Amino acid sequence: MTTRLLTVLVLSLVVFAGCVGGDPAADGGTETTDGGAVPADQSDLSVEAADRLLRDAGSFTATWSYSTTEAGETATITNAYQVDLRANRSIETFSMSGPDAGTEFETFVADGSAYTRYETDDEAFYQVRPQDDTAFQSAVDRGTLSYESVDDARLIGAETFDGVTVDRYEYSDLSTWQQFGAGAFGSGGNVTVTDFTVVILIDESGLARQTAWTLTGETDDGETVSVEWRYEITGVGSTEVPDPDWLDEARQQSDGAT
I need a labelling partner for 60 at 20 to 30 A (CA). Which of 10, 78, 88, 222 fits? Predict the structure, then answer.
């Protein structure tokens, strides 16, 4: 990964994360059944509070990812959460992909303890600490954004996502995005934003199952750069959190240190 690409990734995270969402890459879990765009007013784009709906469901999986592409190289950060409130268990995984991928970790919470496994340079080590709360709030907060910013989204039609029917909304307004400033890409030269698209998939309960956005730009020398932000909720009510296969090793290391 070039230094410039790493800068794009880090600075874009600071500016964009949690702002507003965009167009995902093709997802094998969705199937469009109605391609006709229908104008939607603000009341049509109605998104309910995820924390209430997910607490009622009892369990879910949330996956957040953030990717930057420049000079043919893509760097991606992924944060995934499996949460079972009924059993008071959760596991969070954090990973990076790309030429300069760094430390990865998993945190498993159960029975009043949090067990974290860190891996870097093919070496793993563990940390154990008291913790009662699951990763529920972190998982929900990862997908926080201002849906009011895209209340002019257009209803495209119905799809199937993770086995449930969802309504697909899309929003694309270049002038709206440009007020944030193309310089937020963080590249060494100026970047002209050429496309900004949001996609939101909402189920019948009002839960946003997927929110994603893509931002594309072009540098002064004609190079295309892009950023993609994606947040998905799956396994609602059916997610289980088993013990990770490294749990015994973490306990043994912790016992040996005491």
Answer: 10
The reported pLDDT for the residue numbered 258 is 54
* 77 strand-pairing partners: 66, 96
The number of domains in the chain is 1
CA-to-CA dists, residue 228 to 20, 23, 53, 56, 196, angstroms: 11, 8, 26, 30, 10
Residue 198: Cβ within 10 Å count: 27
Residue 143: which pLDDT band, with cuts at 50, 70 and 90? confident
Find out whether 198 and 20 touch, Cβ atoms under 8 Å: yes
- Segment holding 154, helix H or strand E: strand 154-161
Q: Could you tell me the residue range of the domain that residue 128 belongs to?
A: 3-257
